[in-house]
């Protein structure tokens, strides 16, 4: 099975956070509310695709695609 990450989402797509691929980055993401089991929604992308804008845990979070690529997801 091919794992997808938040970086693979299209604008308007929803998914559920499963796990992380980078231990150091995962601590930062957990502190920002990106918890396994949380639903994430890609609300916007910058014109060149980086950074992206996510809705997670009731707030809007902007992050670079490289950071988003460390968040593994399941589609809803």
TrEMBL record:
<dbReference type="InterPro" id="IPR052713">
    <property type="entry name" value="FeoA"/>
</dbReference>
<dbReference type="InterPro" id="IPR008988">
    <property type="entry name" value="Transcriptional_repressor_C"/>
</dbReference>
<dbReference type="Pfam" id="PF04023">
    <property type="entry name" value="FeoA"/>
</dbReference>
<feature type="domain" description="Ferrous iron transporter FeoA-like">
    <location>
        <begin position="4"/>
        <end position="75"/>
    </location>
</feature>
<dbReference type="GO" id="GO:0046914">
    <property type="term" value="F:transition metal ion binding"/>
</dbReference>
<dbReference type="InterPro" id="IPR007167">
    <property type="entry name" value="Fe-transptr_FeoA-like"/>
</dbReference>
<keyword id="KW-0408">Iron</keyword>
<dbReference type="InterPro" id="IPR038157">
    <property type="entry name" value="FeoA_core_dom"/>
</dbReference>
<protein>
    <submittedName>
        <fullName>Ferrous iron transport protein A</fullName>
    </submittedName>
</protein>
């Amino acid at each position: 099975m091919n794992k997808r990450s938040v970086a693979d989402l299209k604008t308007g797509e929803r998914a559920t956070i499963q796990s992380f691929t980078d231990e150091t980055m995962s601590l930062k993401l957990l502190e920002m509310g990106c918890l396994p089991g949380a639903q994430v929604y890609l609300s916007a992308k910058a014109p060149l695709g980086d950074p992206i804008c996510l809705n997670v845990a009731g707030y809007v979070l902007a992050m670079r695609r490289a950071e988003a690529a460390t968040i593994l997801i399941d589609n809803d």
